[in-house]
Amino acid sequence: MFGRRNYNDDEDEQPPLLQTSNLVLTGTVWTALAHFIAGVIGSGVLSLAWSMAQLGWIGGPFCVVLIAFFALVSAFLISNFQIYSNPNNGTTTTNHSYLQAVHTILGYKNGIVCGCLVFFSLFKTGVVYVITSAICMRAIRQSNCYHEEGHEAACEYENVYYMLMFGLVQIVVSQIPNIFHTKWLSIIAAIMSFTYSLIGVGLGLAQVIGQGEIKGNISGISTKNPTQKLWLVAEAIGDIAFSFTFSLILLEIQSTLKSPPSQKETMKKTSGIAVFITASFYLLCGASGYAAFGDSAPGNLLTGFGFYEPYWLVDFGNACIVLHLVGGYQIYSQTLFAIVERWYVEKFPESVLTVDITSLKVSSLSPAFRVNPLRLCFRTAYVVLTIAVAMLFPYFNEVLAFAGSIIFWPLTIYFPVEMYFVHKKIVPWSSKWVVLRIYSTFCLTVSVFILIGSLHGLIAKRFG
């Protein structure tokens, strides 16, 4: 599954993310930052006002900063693992993906466990993006309806049709061969991220100024049932954790960077900038929304209709979210596509399914891409499956929290720490070993707490 072959064909014909030595690497801090922003500042930012409302003015910002710090530590650790020299046999391996790094450094069994979590993480991100894009497209129609018929009008529409529309677009866009060809898509998505985040901040601040007061309190929303408050806090932390899960795409992005300077140093610089920008935007969006609405902060800032006017700006913000999610879906999906298709090419090198049958031009900004049966069938089936699951569980905040609880600790904390121990030959019970063990155990405890709370929320919504 993790083997490699040499390909002498041109760039478009190579299996995804194999032999980058055959490519002219042109990635810089700015292109890597575009990939990061497109992949990180996504649907999670829309839930942060609601998360702040559950945690309050102290707990909310503290959790954002703390989880951002954890994500940055993880990014710094992972950036060291692209080149690994095995002390047992003297071989040196270049790891082009997170999963390959775990397999190479921690061994086959850890690779299998990590593989299952990676597939789940990438898949759940696709599901969340389908849910969010459908909600945003529906919100545009609702916004126009409220503007024309009044805020009390019955402007309710089903998400199903919008999920199908998003899926049709993704079936076409998914034929882009690999992440090397998505730079233009990432740049557009990153611009959209900034745009709708600023719209959300602007609308929140405008409402605060208009109402002449800052809503919210130190302890967050109060409930008559303390247990219910506990579950809401768990969901809120899970939503924030989901918003910082970018560890899976880091080595994929690092593999696109030119050298010199070293790819590792460029990635560490990019990670620092990306986490700072992301945390700042999250704090601004969460704080402005909470200040505007207090305990009634909507679960999705731009689609919960705390804001009705100006309706055209709400429409534009939601349109930017949809455009961003088209690119964000691809940033994560291309990683999964690469893993599966790389395995298939290695397992069945003579298969007729990998023979090109036609070409496809996704946009005027990109070249024509050759299409083969494997890519067409597998990627189409994947998109259809994400749509089906999104239709079954269309619950924005609960799905975010559940996704964050499942993958935050193992993929952002545990595997990077364990790989660091092996890579740097950290001696057990040394000061660094003890600190990292305490750090990992603490994050595991938080993840279990989030999991229980998010499952409670999902079950209550689905069967309550």
Number of helices: 13
Largest sheet: 2 strands, antiparallel
Order of helices and strands: HHEEHHHHHHHHEEHHH
- How many domains make up the 3D coordinates? 1
- Specify Rg, calculated over alpha carbons: 22 Å
Widest sheet: strand ordering: 1-2
* DSSP E strands, number: 4
What structural class should be given to the helix and strand makeup? mainly alpha
Look at the structure and give the mean pLDDT: 80
CATH class identity: Mainly Alpha
Quick one: overall form? Answer: globular
**Which topology does CATH recognise?**
Amino acid/polyamine transporter I
Helix content: 55-70%
**How big a fraction of the residues is strand?**
under 5%
The CATH architecture name reads: Up-down Bundle
Topology:
Layout (H helix, E strand, L loop, with lengths): L28 H12 L7 H31 L4 E3 L6 E3 L3 H9 L1 H42 L10 H14 L9 H29 L14 H17 L4 H8 L8 H31 L17 H37 L10 E3 L8 E3 L1 H20 L3 H28 L7 H33 L1
Antiparallel strand pairs: 1-2, 3-4
Helix pairs in contact: 1-6, 1-8, 1-9, 1-10, 2-7, 2-9, 2-12, 3-4, 3-12, 4-5, 4-10, 4-11, 4-12, 5-11, 6-9, 6-10, 7-12, 7-13, 12-13
Can you give a write-up of this model?
With 464 residues, the protein is mostly helical. 67% of the residues lie in helices and 3% in strands. The chain has one domain (11-463): Amino acid/polyamine transporter I (Up-down Bundle). The longest helix is centred in the N-terminal third of the chain and has 42 residues, at 108-149.
Notable features of this structure?
single chain; 464 residues; mainly alpha; Amino acid/polyamine transporter I; two-stranded antiparallel ribbon; 13 helices; 4 strands
